Amino acid sequence: MQFDCWYSPEFEAQFVALQTRLAQLQVELTGHVVEKINAKFLRLHPELALILDQDGLSLAANGMKMQPDWQAEIPRLKRAGMKSEMLARACQVNEQPNLIDATAGLGHDSLLMAKLGAKITLIERHPILYSLLEAAHQTAQQDVFLAPVVANIQLVHADSAHYLEQQIQAGQQVDVIYLDPMFPQRDQNQQAVKKQAQVKKQMQLLHLLLPEDGEMDLGENLLALARQLAQRVIVKRPRHAVYLDNQVPQHQWLGDACRFDGYFRP
Ligand SMILES: C[S@@+](CC[C@H](N)C(=O)[O-])C[C@H]1O[C@@H](n2cnc3c(N)ncnc32)[C@H](O)[C@@H]1O
């Protein structure tokens, strides 16, 4: 894979480190030095690229810029509790489970679960997204509030299908596996399509990075593997979406826009 990165001259050292890291993840990163990266620059360069500037590492396209903004999650993390967070209840994070989040994305769900006690292995297969997660994890280690939270999160760059298969073959067991695979833009039900029209900037950029055909599969293969490995599998779906892999859950937690489907071992 080839990818571009815009960076200001003072971030040369960070660019070289990022280029080396991405080469290890099979990405050839081409750097372009630019004096000033501002809103006008982003509008004039609408193509998908990485940005290295005073805000750290971000993904940009169509005049927008985003990163896994774990700092911005702090107010929510401070308020979060088992009562208020359906995800936390579904995954029983108060029992401090070993939890695999097999579809990391921006890592926001895992950050919440790590705050509430889960020990998390966070897996992402897309190398660009993975590099954004590594940057967020590193930045969070410098933050007094986030440092103990991210100490509960271990990042893995892998295809979860391979990772889960390896764990099964090695005879491992895990308490909880959480799946939040992408959901297609054009799909089985209209309500989900309407929601997609309102997706936030972060999700819009995520969809540009992970096209529907190709790298974006819908995670159906992960559920059967997860059920072999974990006592408890929780799947996040848009509220009215079909079941993942057509497997009927044993329990559902329903929210306004999304729901969590639970699959349990007897
Ligand atoms: C909807 S996003 C997850 C959002 C996440 N829950 C959050 O809080 O930010 C789905 C992510 O799963 C990743 N993914 C999908 N299938 C995967 C697989 N087989 N292995 C690893 N990552 C996968 C995609 O690359 C994408 O980043």
From TrEMBL:
Binding site residues for S-adenosyl-L-methionine: E124, R125, D180
A GO cellular component annotation in the UniProt record: cytoplasm
Keyword rRNA processing applies: yes
GO MF terms, alphabetically ordered: rRNA (guanine-N2-)-methyltransferase activity
The protein's Enzyme Commission number: 2.1.1.242
A Pfam cross-reference name: SAM_MT
Reaction equation(s) it catalyzes: guanosine(1516) in 16S rRNA + S-adenosyl-L-methionine = N(2)-methylguanosine(1516) in 16S rRNA + S-adenosyl-L-homocysteine + H(+)
Enzyme category, top tier: transferase
InterPro entries: 16SrRNA_methylTrfase_J, SAM-dependent_MTases_sf
Gene3D superfamilies in UniProt: Vaccinia Virus protein VP39 (3.40.50.150)
HAMAP family registered for this protein in UniProt: 16SrRNA_methyltr_J (MF_01523)
Protein role: Specifically methylates the guanosine in position 1516 of 16S rRNA.
Protein name, UniProt field: Ribosomal RNA small subunit methyltransferase J
Organism taxonomic ancestry: Bacteria, Pseudomonadati, Pseudomonadota, Gammaproteobacteria, Moraxellales
